[in-house]
Amino acid sequence: MSNNRFESIRTVISRKDIDISRPGNKISEYFASNVFHRAAMQKFLSDDAYESVVTAINKGSKIDRTVADQVASSIKSWAISKGATHFTHWFQPLTGATAEKHDTFFSPTGIAEGIEKFSGDALVQQEPDASSFPSGGLRATFEARGYTAWDPSSPAFIIDIQDEKTLCIPTIFVSYNGEALDYKAPLLKSAHELNKAAVDVCHYFDRNVKKITATLGWEQEYFLVDESYFYNRPDLVVSGRTLFGHTPSKGQQLEDHYFGSIPERVYRYMVDFETEAHKLGIPLKTRHNEVAPGQFECAPVFEEVNLAIDHNQMLMDLMNRVARRHKLKVLFHEKPFAGINGSGKHNNWSMQTDTGKNLLAPGKTPKTNLQFLTFFINTIKAVHDYNDLIRASIASAGNDHRLGANEAPPAIISVFIGSQLTRVLQRLEKSIGKGKMDEQERMDLRLEIHKQIPDLMLDNTDRNRTSPFAFTGNKFEFRAVGSSANCAEPMIVLNSIMAKQLLDFKQDVDTLVSTGAKKEEAILKTLQGYIKKSKRILFEGDNYSESWKKEAKQRGLNNITDTPRALDFMVDKKASGLFSELHVFDKKELEARHEIMLENFIKKIQIESRSMGNMTVNHIIPAAIKYQNLILENINNIQKISSDSAQWQAQEEIFIELAGHIQILYKEVKAMINARKKANKIKDIRTKAIAYGDQVRGHFSIIRYHADKLELLVDDRIWPLAKYREMLFIR
Ligand code: ADP
Ligand code: MG
User: What is the pLDDT of residues 126-139, one digit of tens each?
Assistant: First the structure.
């Protein structure tokens, strides 16, 4: 037998097995070839119809029925010319995955005859059987209906599964009464509110700006494992993470993976999914190894937030599908392997004007720099005021393993801005006295601030990798988002708190102006006040250190390390006031969502707990007992030829150690099941979630500890589960 126990099941893939040839020499030749983008639309639509769709996209206005019919017929022609036979409304329910229900274009017109049909109605609205999607009690069962509605701002696309092509129409998903049941509907609302508030503030500086979009560039981390190992691990199959497994003798200590070359098998997989992504118009740009063995990352060029999120959801789905061809499995879980870095999804966020200006990029003139500072400081104030809500937006069972652990940003939300901008803020804070500013003072301050800002971009060394929310030159990077998350949740929160903050800012400035201050003075003074008020959220030190936890506590910043408690801040008075003021969620919707998230959390822990119990009792303990029998047999045989107990002393010790671990394991699994039973009786969903998080999950580490000890003791050839050393190093 080879020293790899699973050599026989390990997938052997040769170059010949998978054709990864790209459809052109240059990516630009096939980029977005499967997307009904503006150029395609223009080709297939009448000028009038094209105009009204573009206006609808730009202004969010309604598309009337006759235009919808035209658009539908042109999308159909385009899709059929590409070989599509079916269409689907594509949406993002709160299950975390994407959903589709395929219908064919074909409709019979008589016996043995038919035509391809796609009407405006079918484009605009559908009624999927929604009763099986989570709704948090929003839909009583008798009206278990919801419907999907076309989002014209995200272009239709064609997915190609083994040469079978389906047209996908991005849609929102709402209940029969119009309550949001998905991620996209509230996201669009939040982006709309941000647009309105930001345009108003922008007009202090530039009257030409008509629209502002939030921009998002995500960085997707993931692990890859050989498919055969994946299916050997029931825990990976049901929960996406390993519930057992001893850290290999070589993990990431050597830090050689990050800079190492990409293994060839992985490289071919990357090229394959990138090609598919490019055809779908997903602007993937970078690929590289990540810190842990078996861990990788990809990132696109940033886009408007709604499109960026659709693209991230499409990509995750695509990566799963393409992996099958390579006999690989992608793990998007935040913590698939204990003792090894977890995965995140950095969300790079900014705002951009329709005149092409990034509002978080330092400017070239004193005036544009004041605009930069305005948006920059308002972001800090927003994060300060709503830091608990931001924390809530990234809460999930998976992310609980990262936040607060030693590799990911902690569960304390703080903002890093770098030493230069720290100086700028200090200067601004100190320089304005209580009284009126005279013209000279204002000019001096304006110039001085301007002088300090321009070389900002050059200072690339000034990067704090430990901060959960860091300014990185021309955008904020929200790093605490989990790798499996739909970015919409944190983006809804960021857009909303920023919209609210900008509304307040406008009011504060206008109030000062109405009492006689000059506009620029009013802006500077308001910003000065904000710096004073939100200082405690700024932190430049090591976020992973113990001392930060203490300091944060003194500053009154929360450190909430578990999901159910973090989610409290999603529905508290402050959050619900914010969301209803902006019409992003009403109270009922918010509470329904909260319930769904708690339910998701409970289900995840329940599945993990069941899997853990089964694996312990059905896989791990039997392996240990088998080994005990081998030892007993051995001792018996030795005793036949020797009466010297020293000859079997080691065996006896191993036997006893095994017995000890088996006993504890059996007892702990029982206790865990009891904890589950108790928790299941709890009616209140929040209390139940806390019981699952604290009591049920509380047993995991003990069970794991003893099972992992057994892994070290039991004969390698008997151990039934693929080990970390096997799974982590892809060949
Ligand atoms: P890192 O050093 O963190 O890898 P990069 O410069 O590679 O940073 O950028 C990471 C992501 O940030 C990319 O997706 C990039 O497109 C995105 N990004 C850059 N500028 C902006 C912006 N103005 N708004 C949103 N995302 C941005
Ligand atoms: Mg980054």
Answer: 877 656 677 776 65
* Probe residue for ligand 1, chosen from 221, 291, 302 as the CB with the greatest number of ligand atoms within 8 Å: 302
Q: What is the domain count for the chain?
A: 3
Phi-psi region of 334 (alpha: psi -120 to 50; beta: other; left: phi over 0): alpha
CA of 358 to the centre of ligand 1 (A): 12
Please indicate, yes or no, whether residues 178 and 208 belong to a single structural domain of this protein: no
Residue 511 corresponds to which amino acid? T
Considering only CA atoms, which of 396, 273, 281 is closest in space to residue 343? Answer: 396
Q: What is the mean pLDDT of residues 671-691?
A: 98
Q: Are residues 361 and 305 in the same domain?
A: yes
Contacts of residue 461, Cβ cutoff 8 Å, sequence gap at least 6: none
The strand pairing partners of 110, in sequence order, are 113
Query: Does residue 177 sit in the same domain as residue 200?
Result: no
217 CB less than 6 Å from ligand 1? yes
Alpha helices, H only, 91-246: 120-124, 184-202, 227-232, 234-239
Residue 11 inside a domain? The answer is: no
Give the number of the atom of ligand 1 that is nearest the alpha carbon of residue 217.
14
Nearest-CA neighbor of 490 among 680, 343, 346?
346
Same structural domain for residues 449 and 507? Answer: yes
Q: How far is the CA of 378 from the centre of ligand 2 (A)?
A: 22
How far, in Å, from the CA of 346 to the mean position of ligand 2?
6
Interval between CA 724 and ligand 2 midpoint (Å) = 27
Measure the CA–CA gap between 540 and 418, rounded to whole angstroms: 7
Tens digits of residue pLDDT in 609-639: 999 999 999 999 999 999 999 999 999 999 9
Distance 482 CA to ligand 1 centre (A): 17
pLDDT-derived band of residue 2, with 50, 70 and 90 as boundaries?
very low
471 lines ligand 1 (CB under 6 A): no
Q: Considering only residues 180 and 564, tell me which one the structure prediction assigns the higher pLDDT.
A: 564
Q: Among 212, 471, 475, 479, which is best to mutate for testing ligand 1, by the most ligand atoms less than 8 A from CB? A: 475
Q: Tell me which residue range forms the domain holding 69.
A: 31-182
In a domain? residue 545: yes
* End-of-domain residue from the set 162, 182, 202: 182
| In-domain check, residue 73 | yes
Which CATH number covers residue 67? Answer: 3.10.20.70
Ligand 2 (ion): residues with CB under 5 Å are 346
Whole-number mean pLDDT of the chain? 90
Over 90: is that where the pLDDT of 413 sits? Answer: yes
User: Looking at ligand 1, which residue's alpha carbon is closest to its atom 4?
Assistant: 219
Look at residue 239 and tell me if it is in a domain: yes
